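Worked Example 4.2. Consider the chain below.
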Amino acid sequence: QVQLVESGGGLVQAGGSLRLSCMSSRSIFSINAMGWYRQAPGKQREWVALMSSGFNSDYADSVKGRFTASGDNAKNTVYLQMNSLKPEDTAVYYCYARVATGPGFSDYWGQGTQVTVAS
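Applying the procedure from the previous section yields the following structure tokens:
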């Protein structure tokens, strides 16, 4: 089991920045992949960023060059630095973790944190 707790959401003006945090209940060394998804009102949840082992990161085209994912092993925490925010970035942001369990994987989600970007 992995519990994920996000923080750092809020209201920001377009062009501003926010940093989201996601604290894991277990060492992130033991997690195969961690990342961020978001869900805007009336839309499906979409992938934003994903970090695999060694903190190699990949990003959705819509956020590439503006968002940066990182991790702190000592704090069991991953971050999403969001710069040059746009109104279309408004969504609930969810932290995600995938852990190998036997022959397969288990996926875990945080409770979500609201990000609102005002135009």
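DSSP finds no helices and eleven strands in the chain. The chain has a mean pLDDT of 94. Compare this with Example 4.1 before moving on.
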